[in-house]
Amino acid sequence: MTKLYVGNLPFTATEEAVHALFSKHGTVEKVSLISDRDTGRPRGFGFVEMSTSDASRAMQALNGTDFDGRALKVNEAQERERSGGGNRGGGSRRY
Prior knowledge:
Strand order of the largest sheet: 2-3-1-6
Order of helices and strands: EHEEHEEE
CATH topology of the domain at 2-45 and 52-70: Alpha-Beta Plaits
Number of strands: 6
Largest sheet: 4 strands, antiparallel
Shape: globular
CATH class of the domain at 2-45 and 52-70: Alpha Beta
Distance between the termini: 48 Å
Strand content: 25-35%
CATH superfamily of the domain at 2-45 and 52-70: RRM (RNA recognition motif) domain
CATH architecture of the domain at 2-45 and 52-70: 2-Layer Sandwich
Oligomer: single chain
Number of helices: 2
């Protein structure tokens, strides 16, 4: 399974519309559009999960294509390290 990052989505995009767009290139397992935690408004990006071969085809076909007037950015999602918050200095402190 491969997770694709889909950026530059129009704020009017729905999970159903993104699913329909990607399903032309293979079986879509999951679509997640990201919303702002505080306002609930769309952030203009999301993730699509597909089998590795389908994801590769979809990435090639859809990266840079127009979706409701916006050029999509589609690439393989990179795992992001989740910080535990708190100490952002990165080292131990001496007093």
